[in-house]
Write a structure and sequence with these properties.
Layout (H helix, E strand, L loop, with lengths): L12 E3 L6 E3 L3 E4 L4 H6 L11 E4 L4 E2 L2 E4 L7 E2 L2 E7 L15 E8 L2 E2 H10 L4 H4 L5 E2 L4 E2 H4 L6 E6 L2 E7 L7 H8 L10 E3 L14 E6 L3 E8 L1
Keywords: Hydrolase, Metal-binding
GO molecular function, one term: hydrolase activity
Organism: Roseomonas haemaphysalidis
Amino acid sequence: MADYVIQPAPETTIPVRGEAGVFPVRRIWCVGRNYADHAREMGHDPDREPPFFFSKPANAAVPGGTLPFPGETKDFHHEVELVAALAKGGKDIPQDQALDCVYGYAIGLDMTRRDIQAEAKKMGRPWELSKGFDQSCPISEIVPASVIGHPTQGKIEVTVNGRVQQTGDMNQMIWSLPEAIAYLSRYVELLPGDLIMTGTPAGVSAVKPGDVLHGTCEGVGEITVTYAG
């Protein structure tokens, strides 16, 4: 075992339904603008341009429950997404072999400081502080694909204080999960523990202190997050 000059940070893990063991998180990759209606609401053409990706650090992944409202934002948004958890990876993964890499699925929230993101875009700067901040990825337990298969359709939705805010169907993705995995693996080597967030439907909106978010993904699971003041 290696000796460390400082104590390493705890490993980020996610519970797995029906298992005593947990899933170790390596990296979090997010597919941007992968639902046409969301692309339109963000002011972009939803034509099938090549996919693009951004990332969040592993420790952005946290369970549901009560979370602190983040600082340095006046426009804090929710984005509900299907999440794929990889058991293996590689480079230049063929599309017809991509799903062999998937261990299971969860539902997650890509929480976004929209005002910081907008300013970064305007100034041609990176998005990290808008997307990769602490606790920016609440995520449910993972359900193994051996239990539920590989979902390609079904409602994905989030309510805010009981009111439906985002709703869509997984079959509305512009780029399917196998396509996204194959494309991303041309640029980086995917490895066990990587998470892929597959994009969000239209309806993103601001979250305020005290709001309760409840996300559901048909056949996969649910998550509830309350933002404290």
